[in-house]
Amino acid sequence: MTAVPAASSGFNIIKKFKKTRLTQRSNRKVSVIATSDVTADVSEQSNKDSVNDGFCGESFADKGELLSSLSPLLFSMKLFGLYFYREHRHRRRADDPEWNSASTTTGTTSTKLRVYAAIILIFVWFNFLRLVFLFNNSDHFGSRLLIKIVIFAWFGLIAILQAAYYYASHTRQLIKVLLTLPVTVDCVVKARRVARFLTANQWVVLVINGSISACFFFLTEGNYDFTLAPFVTYIKVPENKILLARIIGNLLHFLPIPCSLFAELMTLVLVYIFYIEFKKLKQNFRRAFGERGQFNGDLSVFRRRHQTLSRAVSKIDGFMKFSNVAGFVCHIANIIMLMYSVIFYPDSTSNSISAFIHLSTLLANVVGLLFSASAGIIVNHMVRISITRFETMIIKVKDRVGTPGVSGKSYLTSYMWIFVHFGG
Question: CA distances (Å), 233 to each of 131, 136, 218, 359, in order?
Fold first, then answer.
């Protein structure tokens, strides 16, 4: 009779133990992960692995080398508010045990640069809006009105370029591309060489522009004092203060010019980097074909590389497209108006100073047009060549369908795979 309670007791213990285990299991946190998230993580990790492995046997440069190779150009851009480093919004707090206190200095520096860039941006736009007062009721169609329109359009372009690169720095699009774009070591070397040469060249151009700007105010006997607007055009300036007004006007006229020069220079350097990488992609894709036209490489490698470069181009295009279009339209319009003025209005070149101003402004717009046009033409040319190579491969695969000894099914499968990954 005593054994029954013992068994019952043991049964209760086991029952309680099972109940405790079930309760513990129910209290555990269960995380549900979507299939798309897993696929994205795996895809991202595979892309990172492919980046670390290099491309077609050529290793990529270390992270940050491309950014450091452009340091002379980036420093010049910082001076004129075109570039600043904005810290990530979700960085670690000060109470985080893993937070590094040394990052405080970097954060303070980046904040100062961002405020400085914002001040420069406001100044450039204020200077552009000031030039609305260039025009008054006394204007009539002629060389004087045409040069006013040219100056107004040029400073409008400068304001757009300044806003574009402020947006690129504020959204961290520019620095993301420079830090994350996998480029080869020789591309970094070439980019460093080109950036140094063009930066030094631009500082020489700045000196020339400074002399041209001074001619506007001090050697033309007041013929271009309308650039002091709203003074002279709407507000009369006494003779004893006209020299001071010209000095201030010279600064207002000259200071925004470097903003456009270094912005277009950065655009050209970025285009040059993409040109090198797309050219290598084309060359390696060509080498992957054998003598009989068979493809010996790994298509997935070329697909990933092409997608990486295309994504980077899309990021750059996000802040460059409006400035490039504005630059192209502005320079075309200015060239037409300046040529019309020089040809049909002899008073625009009546003396050596006036001729120098008109011809140098015309030359500057021609150079600016080359900068703006080359940015789109070079990249589109290299992308088109890469796509043409892929389409050539598709045609070769299609031509071999039905060849004796060749399985049509396998080539059709290959053709569909290539079309899906490259054709879209």
Answer: 10, 7, 18, 25
Sign for the CA dihedral angle at 212, 214, 218, 221 comes to positive
235 DSSP β-pair partners: 231
Query: Is the CB of residue 333 less than 8 Å from the CB of residue 153?
Result: yes
Domain locations along the chain = 52-91+103-423
| Terminal-residue alpha carbon distance, the chain | 83
Structure tokens at 115: 């405020």
8 Å CB contact between 276 and 190: yes
Separation CA 77–CA 82 (nearest Å): 5
**For the segment 371-391, what is each residue's pLDDT rounded down to a tens digit?**
777 766 766 665 555 555 555
Who has greater pLDDT, 165 or 370? 165
Percent of the chain that is helix, strand, coil (3-state, to 5): 75, 0, 20
Whether the CB-CB separation of 124 and 256 falls below 8 Å is answered with: yes
CA 121, CA 166: separation in Å to the nearest integer?
8
* Average pLDDT of span 299-315: 83
Beta bridge partners of 203: none
